[in-house]
Each structure stands twice: as structure tokens, then as C-alpha cells.
Amino acid sequence: MDLLSHDVLNNNQAVLSYLELVLANPETTPKDREYAEKALAQLRTSTLLLENARDMMAVRSGRTGNMQPTDLARLSKSALKELGKFFPGKRFKVRWAKESPAAIVMGNVLLKDLVFNAFVELAKADPGENVEIEARIVSSDKGGKPSWTLLLSDRNAVLQPGARIDDMEYILSQDSSRMVRVSGFLFAMMGAGILGGDFGTKDLGEGKGVELSLRLVKAGEA
Amino acid sequence: MTSVLIVDDELFIVELYRDILQLRGYKVVATAFDGEEALRKYTNIGDKPDVIIMDHRMPVMNGVDATKEIIRMNPKQKVIFVSADVLVEKEARDAGAVDFLPKPFRMDDLIEKMEKLSLRR
Questions:
Q1: Which among A17, A47, A58 has CB closest to B107?
Q2: Verdict on whether the full-model pTM lies above 0.80
């Protein structure tokens, strides 16, 4: 898997760079620019999927590196800034709750990718061009483990059938033929579990949107 | 003009970096397809390159080992490590690389890192 992903990522590097050249060329027409931007966004998604597979293999072979204290708020803010690159037709506005604590959790190489996957799927679940996300981090004590929980909600997002967490657990354990295109949620769910936390999706009801939650153990409490 | 040595085992990647860096005003003084060839060329170059762009997974000698050797010869040499294997970042930095970029990256990001190293004259 390592060798395969290495080769594919090399190819993606070339495609990415040549598309950037097309976009940087002042003679590129607006329509061609739009096509190139769409191709670039799909290339980024393809790269993310490949990185997910590679991360999972790294976990299985114990190559994920040591768990280290990581600032969840900072990581989330940086991931949210990257979202626009994956969705050229969408504009993102993220509102953070005023008092976002410095939430230090234990994580490894998986953490950044699982946070990003959750955001990408939330953005996909919002059909609008203007995506507004409310974000906050709260302290929790689930199962006696002091944790930080990142909560993200989008009033316009709609969960696909099969994207609720119970459905995903069923799909994973019983019937993968029902797999829907929410592999980012699945990755986030599995990744959070590996890191000792959990990930959930919640349908807030008609017209109220969707809330994602990512709970991770506080650093120093594992 | 900032001079660059490119080390990567994929010809299309070497050509890509060379084309874009030359377009952006950099001078590519040499290219190498594995760590050992990089060491050989580095040793023979009179004016050492301002920066080396180093891949990791290559035949004969990998990027981390080549970086260690180059830094041993010239501790001031700037090596920017680029690799599809993010797990090698710590090893690369320990070997003496001043920066790390996971593939695929935007060429603007690479150039920004080179600028930050004040490599442009």
C-alpha cells in the first residue's frame, strides 16, 4: 500500500502542478479556468481518499508514530481554511463560539486527516453555495475520560441515508453493499475510535441541519 | 540567481520541477535520480547549490541517507525534503533537512519555502 500510494501521489503531484500552470497562464479562458479548477478539486479529493487508505494501513502496521499533545482548535481552524480548495463553487463562513478553549488532545498522524474528512463530508452535505458552519469546543467527561469535543453544525446540511452513525456501524459490520459515498465519515469514525475517542453525526431535524461531534481524550488524561 | 539540485527517481517529476523552477527564475544546476548519484554530483559541483530538493524513496540510496551525507560534508547546505511519505518527516529533519513538504504540494508552496530561506538573491 505504501508503495502504491507513493506512486499515485507522485502522479497526482504532476497533474496538480500542470493544472496550476494552466491556471497561472493569463491566456487561459474563464471557461477553461473553471474546468481546471474543478479538475484540481477532484484531484485533491482523490489524494485525500488515498491518504485515508494509507493512514489506515499505517495504523494496522503500527507505523502511525507516537501519540502527541495536539491543539484541536488550532488544527480545526487550519483544516477549515483548506475546505475552499476542495469546493471551488462554494463559499465558506465559519463562526467559532466566543470562548473556544485551548483544547489539547492526544493524537497522531491520523488526527489531522480525520478532522479534515469530517469537514469535507459536512461541506458535501450542504447543497448550497454559501456554507455556514457553527463551531465550538466543549469539555466533556464521557465514560470517565476527560475529553474535548469539537461540535460542528450546518443548518442547511442534509445527511444522506446511511450517513447516521448507527447506520454506518451497521454498514461496517454487516452489509457493506449499502455503502454510501460518505467514506470520510467512516474514516473519521474509525480514526476517532483508534485514538480513543468517538465521532458522531446527528440529524437535528427538518430544516435544522446536521451536527457533527468529534470527542478526543484530553492530553495528560489518557 | 538561486541555484537548485533536484533529486527524485521519477523522470516526470524531475522534469516538472525543472520546468517550473526555471520558469520562476531559478537555475537548476544538476539533477539526480537516486541518493548516490546526488552525492556524486554534489561532490563534483564547484559552486554548491543554494538548495537541494530531495525525494526520499529512491533506488540505491534513499533521501534521508543522502541528506545525512550531504549535511556531513556541508552542514550549511539547505535541503528541502519532499516526499509522499509523511511518516518520514521527523527522520528527514533529524538528518538535517530544513523543511518538509508532503506530496502532492503546490509549487507555490515550495517556492514560498525557498523564499523564506532567503535563497533568492
A1: A17
A2: no
